Amino acid sequence: MGAKKKLLLHTCCAACSTHCVKELLEECDVVMYFYNPNIHPYSEYVRRLDSTKKVAEELGVELVEGDYDVEQWLGMIRGLEEEPEGGKRCRICFSMRLDAVAQYAADNGFDCFTTTMTISPHKDSELINSIGERVALKHGVEWVHSDFKKKDGFRKSVSMSKELGLYRQKYCGCFYSIDNK
C-alpha cells in the first residue's frame, strides 16, 4: 500500500468538519485550513475558530489559520449585498475562499484539497465542486470531489458535534446571511 495523499481541507467551521475529517483520514493525511474572512462579526469568527481547534485536537490533525481579510472579502462581494442566500454573493465567496485554499495547497506541497462546505444541506455541492475543479486547474493541485452530506453525513456531523460539545452556529457566516437563519 502506498503513502497517503497529503490533503488540505478547507474548514468552514467545527461542526461541519467533524464527519469530513473522520471520513478523509481513512485515505489521506489531513491538515485543516480555516480560511473564512466572510464570517462576521469577528467574535463569531473567533468562536468558530476556537471550536475548530477543539476538533483538530480531538481528531489529531494539524490546523492552519488563514488570514482574516474582511476588507478583501467585502470588496469581492460589493454590489451583491442584497443577493439571496445561495446566489451570486455566495458563488463569489466560495470562489474566493477555495482559490486561497488551492493557492496555499500548491505553495505548501499538498497533493490535493477539498472543503467541508459540501456537508451542509443548504449548500450546492455541485456548484462548490465545479468551483473547486476550476481553481485546482489554475493552481495545479488536485481537487477532491465531495458531497459529505451523502450517506447520512450531515446527521453524523450533528451527532459528533453534540458528543464533542461543539458550538453550532445558526447562520452561514457573513452578516448578510444572519437574517436567513
Output the CATH class name: Alpha Beta
Q: Label the CATH architecture.
A: 3-Layer(aba) Sandwich
Order of helices and strands: EHEHEHHEHEH
The 3D shape can be described as globular
Largest sheet: 5 strands, parallel
**So what's the oligomer here?**
single chain
Q: Share of helix among residues?
A: 40-55%
What does this structure look like?
- With 181 residues, the protein is an alpha/beta fold.
- It has a single domain, classed as Rossmann fold (3-Layer(aba) Sandwich), CATH 3.40.50.
- Helices cover 46% and strands 13% of the residues.
- The protein contains six helices and five strands.
- The longest helix has 20 residues, at 88-107.
- It is globular.
What's the helix and strand layout?
Elements: E1 5-10, H1 14-24, E2 28-34, H2 42-59, E3 62-65, H3 70-77, H4 88-107, E4 112-115, H5 125-139, E5 142-143, H6 153-164
Parallel strand pairs: 1-2, 1-4, 2-3, 4-5
